[in-house]
Amino acid sequence: xxxxFFVVPEWQGSTSSxxxxxxxxxxxxxxxxxxxxxxxxxxxxxAGDSVGTSVNRLSxxxxxxxxxxxxxxSLAPDDIPMIxxxxxxxxxxxxxxxxxxxxxxxxxxxxxxxxxxxPESSPSHAFGGMVLRTxxxxxxxxxxxxxxxxxxxxxxxxxxxLDDAEVDYIEAAGVGRVxxxxxxxxxxxxxxxxxxxxxLHIDLDVLDPDAIxxxxxxxxxxxxxxxxxxxxxALRDRFPIVGAAVTGFMPSTPAAADDDLSTILRILSAxxxxxx
Length: 276
Hints:
Blueprint: E1 2-8, H1 21-30, E2 38-40, H2 58-71, E3 79-85, H3 92-101, E4 105-110, H4 131-135, E5 154-157, H5 164-173, E6 176-178, H6 183-192, E7 197-203, H7 225-238, E8 241-247, H8 258-272
Helix pairs in contact: 2-3, 6-7, 7-8
């Protein structure tokens, strides 16, 4: 058994005017991954088209999802996949695979934003704000996975910038939410879902802006690196980790990426470390 890394520099779902810097971020992380265990997934060069829907750039987002599904065919039976994005939409195929192969999985969503808008409620119509809602079965049909993740098997961590429609959805659907600074409370929240395994989605903007510079939408009062690492370690030691994604690295320049890489690599190490 071992981790396989899939570098997916998708940028088309981002709300940022600097979205293409996500390509630089993914490539910067790629430079520190083991080459023999890493697959680079091609992403369309163009923005793509909404194809008559309320999701901007849907054609490219769907194409990336399909490319990741194809790349997953290289996985050996005991391999564990990690997506390295790109925006959060790069993780569509990762979560879908985890849900299909591990019906008891809980998706733990480390993110400053809930990503729980529907195409109708989204203020921006950028897919980055709809990713988790789509994974829960409520989105454009071409992007909704089968089977979808049950809302009660999703737990938000460190989420602090939500639209009103997202707050309403969380309450109505029963999505879990914990601050992330209390690892014991997080483990308890995941255990309460009945989960037997965990999939980790880590958007780097879950970190406080003092802890990382290279994100597109920094939100104050986030988690420290040690809090994120501690939460991951607590989950890893209680539940099998069946997959992960690290997304949202957007350095201001390729050279500036070096300033954040030690924090990112520490998080990657926490995810991939053996269970105690």
